[in-house]
Amino acid sequence: MSFFGDIPKLKYEGPETDNEFAFRHYNPDEIVMGKRMEDQLRFAVAYWHSFAWEGGDPFGGRTFDRPWFGNAMDKAKAKADAAFALFERLGQPYFCFHDVDARPEGSSFEEDLKYLQEITDYFAGKMETSGTKLLWGTANMFNHRRWMSGASTNPDPEVYAYAAATVKSCMDATHKLGGENYVLWGGREGYETLLNTDLAAEMDHMGRFLNMVVEYKHKIGFKGTILVEPKPQEPSKHQYDFDVATCFSFLQKYGLENEVKLNIEQGHAILAGHSFEHEIALAQALGVFGSIDMNRNDYQSGWDTDQFPNNVPEVALAYYYIMKNGGFSTGGTNFDAKIRRQSLDAEDLVLAHAGAMDVCARGLKAAAAMIKDGGLEAEVIRRYADWQSDKIKALMDGATLESLSDWVLKEGVNPEPRSGRQERLENYINRFV
């Protein structure tokens, strides 16, 4: 019997169902803003948290006992079998993976490459029969001790070259599997202390590395999007890709703002001192929004707990800004989330995803309703309306400090503050969520 046993394929049964293994809100065929819900949300399972993670945390080791755990190719294939069994039960159209999630750990790069190519072929067969697609692939360059001082920011040029070879192999695998994006997640692209760090050199090395990635994308004809994932810290004291604004500044400095977009995670946004919707809206304003990792942190913990989403109002605001600006292109909703280390059963893994999918579906529908109603957009337009008047447009055309000063004096301008009406808007949001 498979790991998931007789757990059925989940179907939509509506909000009133008492069937635990059914969707209450996620109806893949429901039309939301002109598209099927499945095509708007573009859900993906994170291979690493769901199948490679052993249940450890900073203070304790493995709690899960999975039949595919082990450093051998037969175990890697058993893991893939279990993963695609979960994809089938959930009906999620995509998955995402790191190289080390999928293959055994070899004794050399040559052996790692052989294993990656073998499991890539195995994935290809599973994808063909299941119809599941790859949202994105990436390389794990943070777990192994060789990456303790970073990958593309490592002071050792041999590690830098090893990182380049690793990314090339993972891009090749992603391309072969028809991946729609490739993500660079710099888990240790930062520093622990300035005392031994050359900031300028490390940023230049990282900028050149990312340019090489883009060059290789075009060389092999990869049509997907290159994504960078912002993260502020943990485990590094400071990351060079701290948040959306920092990433955009980095991309501009190295001439990549038209080549690379961002994969934004809710948990990372919170660690950076922002809201998820802020990071999404800013990326869209800067033209670099790509995809999202949907999860949440425990607000009583100071680290990245990667829990499944369960807060509809938070999710609704995230999708409001995504949908208001045209929705996803190549990106989607990757559940970069893991069940708790005490949640041992196969049912826990299925139900965590099912609940998260329902939360996202509710959030998406609330976002669509807000967009259709137009109340938030109308308030923003009202607040900035004076900038659209002919008088102000004429005044601001070629304005200087002197001309504006003359206008204030001539007109006797003495502005009175206007209400931002924040509580009214918060009440408005609650009508939908």
UniProtKB/TrEMBL annotation:
Cell compartment(s), UniProt: Cytoplasm
Signal sequence residues: none
Sites where the protein binds Mg(2+) 2: E265, H268, D304, D306
Keywords: Carbohydrate metabolism, Cytoplasm, Isomerase, Magnesium, Metal-binding, Xylose metabolism
A single MF term (Gene Ontology): xylose isomerase activity
One GO cellular component term: cytoplasm
Catalytic residues, chain numbering: H98, D101
UniProt-recorded name of the protein: Xylose isomerase
Organism, scientific name: Pseudovibrio exalbescens
Gene that this polypeptide is encoded by: xylA
